[in-house]
Amino acid sequence: MTDGPIRVLICEDQQLIRAGYVAVLGAQPDMEVVGQAENGRDALTEIGRLRPDVVVMDIQLPLLDGIEVTRRVAGPQAVKPAKVLVVTTFNVGQYVYDALRAGASGFLLKDAPLDELADGVRTVARGESLLSPAVTRTLIGRYADRVQPVTPTGGPLDRLAPRELEVLKLIAGGLSNAEIAAELVLGVETVKTYVSRILTKLDLRDRVQAVVLAYRTGLVSAAG
């Protein structure tokens, strides 16, 4: 996380919502709104020009949608991946999974309280993922099975020890570190160590990518 204020770029086509984001985030003592973009093409330009710490990204941007913008700036091909916090609504749930696969660090619902947006920006800026357990279970679980799973045998999951596989399953279920610790009767710090090992062994950036991989490999499924 940066030593100075968190530099935020807001990508949102609706002026009223964008203004609300600017007002709330700009009022935070530890944040600075460095730019705005009202369409996907401008978003790409501004992200490249400003190099913000966190990008608040709407999915339904004109000219170039937020998923494609996220893929270009945060996906595997990005030279310096941006940290993207996607904002969306329940009625476009299938796009949320696509956004996470594209490299987003997490997402919030547009009808969430605005103070949750500020907390979300801080979470993403710290390099952590933002996945609400309830939303993870209903959205990720519902749409992840639409992606053709790869065969686990001989795949990346073979790198994990049995206990690490247990932890990964619980991560994919939307459990927090504290909940995983309670489930497995472990200390929270021990769980953090397991999570770090999992991400390192699987060459993943954060918990979001771990959830996606768990579904794609068939370790977990929408049916449980």
Automatic annotation (TrEMBL):
InterPro entries named among the record's database cross-references: CheY-like_superfamily, NreC/VraR/RcsB-like_REC, Sig_transdc_resp-reg_C-effctor, Sig_transdc_resp-reg_receiver, Tscrpt_reg_LuxR_C, WalR-like
Supply the name of the protein.
Answer: DNA-binding response regulator, NarL/FixJ family, contains REC and HTH domains
Give the source species.
Amycolatopsis pretoriensis
Q: Which residues cross the membrane?
A: none
Question: Please, one GO biological process term?
Answer: phosphorelay signal transduction system
**Mind listing the UniProt keywords for this protein, alphabetically?**
DNA-binding, Phosphoprotein, Transcription, Transcription regulation
Q: What SUPFAM superfamilies does the database record attribute to this sequence?
A: C-terminal effector domain of the bipartite response regulators (SSF46894), CheY-like (SSF52172)
Give residue ranges for domain HTH luxR-type: 153-218
One Pfam family name is: Response_reg
**Presence of keyword Ligase:** no
Residue ranges occupied by any Response regulatory domain in the UniProt entry: 7-125
> Keyword DNA-binding: yes or no?
yes
Task: Give the molecular function GO annotations.
Answer: DNA binding
4-aspartylphosphate found at:
58
